[in-house]
């Protein structure tokens, strides 16, 4: 999976084919259906979009598998029409003098419309200048984001391909989703777990007696996938709901899943960021009642004996019993103990989401959960253990047998002589010369954990600890971002704005006037996925379908495909580069056919598959996804079953080959904020702290009605906005205490910033917990200074601090805020309008 290859960044540098393997898609019907029904696919599913005279009239699921609706599927028209960047723009001072472009005015100044060709020349020239002055480590193109589906028009990879071939760039490691867990889990179980296939849902439904949703909201978060959504997991979720099993939700917020399950779920409200205390108390209870699986601990884990003295308080004088935990987490001690016993005495699947690891010391919750699961002793058995990805991308949907399509790759480093003449691509990473080589040697020194982006921009040269290594931040003077919205997704927006005013140049390809596009110097209008042809897998773990992504409407105004923009940048950058970038001049159909044919070849080689893949032209014409079926093995697959069967032959990828409750590797790092065994640490801000800086704990959970910031500009917003702002969920007693009521406009604030939000009374929250979902477009009242966000962007209030020196993940679910009624005249919302000069 591409997501995983983010981690294996160097691997992505190799392998651009130089062979002109031209595949002529002759006689292919490439015409646009002006009036009719067309199938495509997006993160939120395979779609059937109806058009009339070249305009979209409706959009819905083409699969109709999910038992409940997914509103994200119905707003394709708005996604094509609303808030579009229609032409190429350059910020005024940048255009006047790119050498001294007044970066401090970014986001405040007017834009000037320029000719596409001129902007291409400008970017090529300024990129060269930056590389000459700072080397390739001056260029940041980590460019994180959820972009769109499609294996050809994959904006982030297309950017990397351009940046590699033109001489190299600084990348980033990790992501916002699982920053903490994807680093700690390899130390604990030898794999990242968060992006791995789960024990089959069929297994859970057949064999689990108890299912725990521990900080997970699958009803909501299963609506999307990294490729496209096959909707199967929603079906399993409904089966679970109706299964009669004991189902628990341990969460400060009875979320959409909790409401969907209704009286079939038992909600255990917990204080945010305190789960580790509860898990430790469960471990303590099982230990002291002698009701834990000693065989499993003995044969499958390492270091339990070094963890026990911490658990019992021998090392720090604190006994981690239920009474101790109850004071921290707010869950009754009796309930903690009885849950521990229930989990131990029944076949229990502990399903955890990722919210709790997107918090201060986010390495600890999943490590402690695995420790608890080890004491329960059901890991690797049918229906038991833990799973960190049932809520995401259809995890647990059995993997189908069939073909897998290829995709555009990041290419390899280009070689250039002293005069900037392109000499071709490096054959291997180590054969490169010139700028390419100097960058490659330094690459490992300079790419940094993604969530440290603001810190890196503000503190070039600073050395940080990361997972046993030292990392030096480069001096970044040029940023190119595509397919992401960092001004919305990064924590502590006011600091991020400062950071984004540091580099000399920022280039953004965007379809919409997002806060990030507004903070750029040069904005290229990118087509949306509905204005181009592409192909995608459907089902990140299931690989269930190959779907055609047929263009639905004409390209809007001057917008261009990212592929086109980067091809033109190659032409302007060096002679011969575009030839290589496009693999000898391929267009989107050449690639689509190549990827499809690759999968078809795999399918033809499997004798008993029973699925036919048509010849490409015929398939494209049919406009139907190809469906593959799961196998008997995948239907009943159990994660860790092989390890359980033979822990020596199927050893885990940890130093001991076992589950590490104690890690000597981490011990060697000697970090004060991540010890060698699961540990309870007080978060930077939480409800139990001694001198609380604010009254409420804000959870900026993922939105049911968006994909992050995507779709905020559509009319779906009318269904959830309150007082024309992002809704803020608050308990009626909490609301009463501060004198606000349903529908009120409120100011939410702390020392980091302030936002406007609309009050929605919701009683199923832990005391003093509020929800303000992430992804509302940042909309400052006065962009020239630190000012209130008029739309309710949660990250204005979050903390830009790493989880620990181990993982450096973000801590977006750790933040205290105050709330008061907004008494001034409500300012006009401008989040979705174009900036000055446009
Ligand atoms: N407070 C708080 N903050 C969070 C989180 C949280 O829980 N709480 N969660 C974090 C997580 S897990 C994530 S993954 C991030 C998500 O952060 P992002 O991935 O940055 O969020 P998106 O809104 O999906 O942004 C994608 C952008 O890409 C653009 N785009 C789409 N397709 C294309 C294309 O083909 N070409 C180009 N050029 N652009 C395109 C879209 O218009 C959109 O602006 O947010 C993180 N931020
Ligand atoms: N519809 C939709 N689906 C999505 C996304 C989206 O934006 N919209 N984003 C996708 C992406 S990129 C990602 S990374 C995943 C994110 O998936 P998750 O990270 O699992 O999602 P969150 O909403 O952040 O948190 C899930 C639950 O954890 C709870 N939680 C938060 N903090 C704590 C805590 O300290 N303790 C406990 N016990 N619970 C806590 C929240 O209240 C919430 O109910 O979702 C994916 N799916
Ligand atoms: Mo994410």
From TrEMBL:
Pfam family of the protein (one): Molybdopterin_N
Domain Molybdopterin oxidoreductase N-terminal residues, every copy: 40-80
Binding-site list for Mo-bis(molybdopterin guanine dinucleotide): 146, 358, 485, 489, 532, 562, 795
Keyword Kinase: no
Residues in Molybdopterin dinucleotide-binding domain copies: 696-813
InterPro entries: Asp_de-COase-like_dom_sf, BisC, Molybdopterin_N, MoPterin_dinucl-bd_dom, Mopterin_OxRdtase, Prok_Mopterin_Oxidored
SUPFAM superfamilies: ADC-like, Formate dehydrogenase/DMSO reductase, domains 1-3
Domain Molybdopterin oxidoreductase, chain residue ranges per copy: 102-571
Entry's Gene Ontology molecular function annotations: electron transfer activity; molybdenum ion binding; molybdopterin cofactor binding; trimethylamine-N-oxide reductase (cytochrome c) activity
Cellular component per GO, a single term: outer membrane-bounded periplasmic space
EC number of the protein: 1.7.2.3
Cofactor: Mo-bis(molybdopterin guanine dinucleotide)
Record's cofactor remark: Binds 1 molybdenum-bis(molybdopterin guanine dinucleotide) (Mo-bis-MGD) cofactor per subunit.
Gene Ontology biological process terms from the UniProt entry: anaerobic respiration
Keywords: Metal-binding, Molybdenum, Oxidoreductase
Homology family: Belongs to the prokaryotic molybdopterin-containing oxidoreductase family.
Alphabetized PANTHER family for the sequence: TRIMETHYLAMINE-N-OXIDE REDUCTASE, TRIMETHYLAMINE-N-OXIDE REDUCTASE 2
Protein name as annotated: Trimethylamine-n-oxide reductase 2
Organism: Campylobacter sputorum subsp. sputorum
Species classification: Bacteria, Pseudomonadati, Campylobacterota, Epsilonproteobacteria, Campylobacterales
């Amino acid at each position: 999976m591409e997501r995983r290859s983010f981690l294996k960044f160097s691997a992505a540098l190799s392998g651009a084919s130089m062979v002109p393997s031209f595949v002529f898609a002759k006689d292919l019907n490439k015409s646009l259906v002006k009036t009719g029904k067309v199938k495509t696919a997006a993160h939120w599913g395979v779609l059937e979009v109806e058009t009339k005279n070249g305009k979209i009239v409706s959009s819905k699921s083409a699969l109709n598998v999910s038992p409940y609706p997914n509103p994200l599927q119905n707003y394709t028209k708005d996604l094509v029409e609303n808030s579009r960047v229609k032409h190429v723009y350059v910020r005024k001072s940048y255009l006047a003098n790119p050498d001294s472009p007044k970066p401090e005015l970014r986001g405040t100044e007017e834009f000037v419309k320029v000719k596409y060709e001129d902007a291409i020349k400008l970017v090529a020239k300024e990129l060269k200048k930056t590389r000459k002055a700072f080397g390739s480590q001056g260029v940041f193109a980590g460019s994180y984001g959820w972009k769109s589906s499609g294996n050809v028009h994959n904006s982030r990879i297309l950017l990397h391909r351009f940046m590699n071939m033109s001489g190299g760039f600084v990348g980033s490691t990790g992501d916002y989703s699982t920053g903490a867990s994807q680093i700690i889990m390899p130390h604990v179980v030898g794999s990242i777990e968060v992006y791995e296939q789960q024990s089959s849902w069929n297994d859970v439904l057949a064999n689990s007696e108890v299912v725990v949703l521990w900080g997970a909201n699958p009803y909501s978060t299963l609506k999307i996938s990294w490729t496209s959504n096959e909707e199967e997991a929603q079906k399993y979720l409904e089966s679970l709901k109706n299964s009669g099993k004991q189902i628990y939700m341990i969460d400060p917020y009875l979320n959409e899943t909790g409401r969907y399950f209704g009286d079939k779920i038992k909600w255990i409200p917990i204080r945010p960021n305190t789960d580790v205390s509860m898990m430790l108390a469960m471990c303590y209870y099982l230990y002291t009642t002698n009701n834990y699986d000693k065989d499993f601990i003995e044969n499958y884990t390492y270091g339990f004996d070094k963890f026990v003295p911490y658990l019992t308080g021998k090392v720090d004088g604190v006994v981690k019993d239920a009474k101790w935990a109850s004071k921290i987490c707010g869950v009754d001690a009796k309930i903690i103990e009885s849950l521990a016993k229930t989990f131990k005495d029944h076949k229990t699947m502990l399903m955890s989401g990722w919210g709790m690891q997107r918090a201060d010391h986010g390495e600890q919750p999943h490590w402690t959960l695995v420790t608890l699961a080890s004491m329960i002793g059901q890991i690797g058995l049918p229906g038991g253990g833990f799973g960190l990805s049932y809520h995401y991308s259809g995890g647990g949907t059995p993997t189908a047998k069939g073909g897998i399509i290829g995709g555009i790759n990041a290419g390899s480093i280009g070689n250039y002589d002293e005069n900037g003449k392109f000499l071709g691509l490096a054959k291997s990473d180590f054969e490169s010369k010139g700028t390419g080589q100097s960058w490659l040697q330094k690459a490992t020194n300079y790419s940094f954990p993604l969530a440290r982006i603001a810190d890196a921009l503000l503190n070039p040269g600073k050395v940080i600890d990361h997972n046993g290594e030292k990392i030096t931040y480069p001096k970044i003077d040029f940023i190119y971002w595509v397919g992401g919205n960092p001004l919305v997704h990064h924590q502590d927006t006011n600091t991020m704005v400062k950071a984004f005013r540091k580099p000399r140049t920022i280039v953004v390809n965007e379809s919409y006037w997002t806060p990030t596009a507004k903070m750029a110097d040069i904005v290229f209008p990118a087509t949306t996925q509905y204005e181009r042809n592409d192909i995608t897998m459907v089902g990140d773990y299931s690989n269930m379908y190959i779907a055609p992504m047929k263009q639905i409407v004409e390209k809007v105004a001057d917008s261009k495909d990212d592929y086109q923009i980067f091809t033109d940048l190659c032409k302007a950058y060096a002679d011969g580069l575009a030839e290589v970038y496009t693999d000898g001049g391929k267009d989107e159909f050449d690639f689509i056919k190549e990827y499809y044919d690759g999968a078809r070849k795999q399918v033809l080689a499997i004798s008993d598959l029973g699925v036919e893949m048509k010849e490409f032209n015929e398939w494209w014409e049919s406009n139907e996804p190809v469906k593959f079926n799961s196998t008997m093995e995948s239907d009943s697959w159990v994660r860790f079953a092989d390890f359980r069967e033979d822990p020596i032959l199927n050893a885990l990828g940890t130093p001991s080959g076992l589950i590490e409750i104690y890690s000597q590797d981490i011990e060697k790092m000697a970090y004060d904020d991540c010890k060698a065994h699961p540990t309870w640490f007080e978060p930077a801000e939480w409800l139990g702290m001694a001198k609380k800086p604010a009254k409420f704990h804000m959870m900026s959970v993922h939105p049911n009605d968006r994909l992050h910031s995507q779709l905020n500009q559509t009319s779906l917003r009318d269904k959830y906005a309150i007082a024309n702002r992002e809704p803020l969920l608050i308990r009626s007693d909490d609301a009463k205490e501060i004198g606000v009521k349903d529908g009120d406009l409120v100011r939410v604030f702390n020392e980091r910033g302030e936002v406007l939000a609309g009050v929605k009374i919701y009683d199923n929250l832990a005391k003093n917990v509020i929800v303000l979902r992430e992804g509302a477009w940042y909309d400052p009242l006065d962009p020239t200074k630190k000012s209130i966000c008029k739309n309710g962007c949660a990250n204005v209030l979050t903390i830009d601090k790493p989880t620990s020196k181990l993982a450096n993940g973000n801590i977006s679910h750790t933040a205290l805020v105050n709330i008061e009624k907004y008494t001034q005249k409500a300012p006009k919302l401008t989040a979705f309008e174009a900036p000055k000069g446009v």
